[in-house]
Amino acid sequence: PIPNPRQPHAFRLAAHTLFLDMPVAEMASQAGFDTIVQVFPWRALNPRPDYFDWIAADLMVRVAQAQQLDLVVRVDMPPFWATRADPSGLPFELEAYLDFVGAMAARYRDYIIGYMIWNEPNLAEEWGGWVAAPAQYVDVLCRAHAVIRQADPGALVIAAGLAPTNEFSPRAVDDREFLRQMMAAGAGTCFDVLATHDYGYGLPPDDPHDAHIGLNLARLVDLHKIMTEAHATQPMWITEVGYTVQPGLHPNVSLSDQADYLAGAFERVRREWPWISMFTVWYLSYTGDAEMQGFSIIETDRTPRPAFEVMPRLR
Fold first, then answer.
1. Is residue 315 predicted with pLDDT exceeding 80?
2. The pLDDT value given to residue 14
3. Where are the alpha helices (DSSP H) in the chain?
């Protein structure tokens, strides 16, 4: 298909999907979303050295085009053959990752608007069993930035969303300190957008910035302050925001509160934080495990939840 021109949205309303098939894309369009955030797992698309399987990715790109949805992809989840187990280094083979990112950016030039380089490197679970050293993540980001710029100069390079946490432990490092060290290590010249994960943890979206030890929607203010102190002017995107109706790791809310809180979160972002230029609902899917499905704004039979119904009114 002929690529859609990249839409110059001043503010994007996005949905994070688990797999962008046509039913999901049609519902995204119906809800008024203009952008999709989707994981393109390295392990699935590059299952062995020097071999790429683009079938699923091609399908999702075509579906996005058909529904005139801009597509942002997250690139992580290393294949077994490229993993490493040395906590003093990276948990994956960097050159193999760069080859994969470069091949993807070349194949989907003008089709994908941005590439998110990894996910939550401040969590051991997401990095390979240990928390990333911020400077090592910055090296990955900067190397990937150079590869993408060469393959698709118009694509955005997006610094990974960090997990909101107050921990300093072998399993997690506070996202604010991680970002502070990233900026000190020179990250500012290697990304166009900073991704953020902004969960309400069952609290109303107007919960004050200094309440609940900072684990609420307003945590973004701390991240913006760190960016400002580093003289960074890049926009910030919320690439995950959600409220679950399923008991689990996050406090759960009712279906009606899920709708009201997402709408309130959107309104607060637009009213108070002009440095945010995308709001991404986590998530829009009728598949996934029970914990993931708790965050979805549709049921497993694709019946809209109340949160789905409020989305068109946010535009």
1. no
2. 98
3. 22-31, 42-45, 55-66, 94-107, 124-127, 134-151, 175-184, 220-229, 255-272, 290-295, 306-310
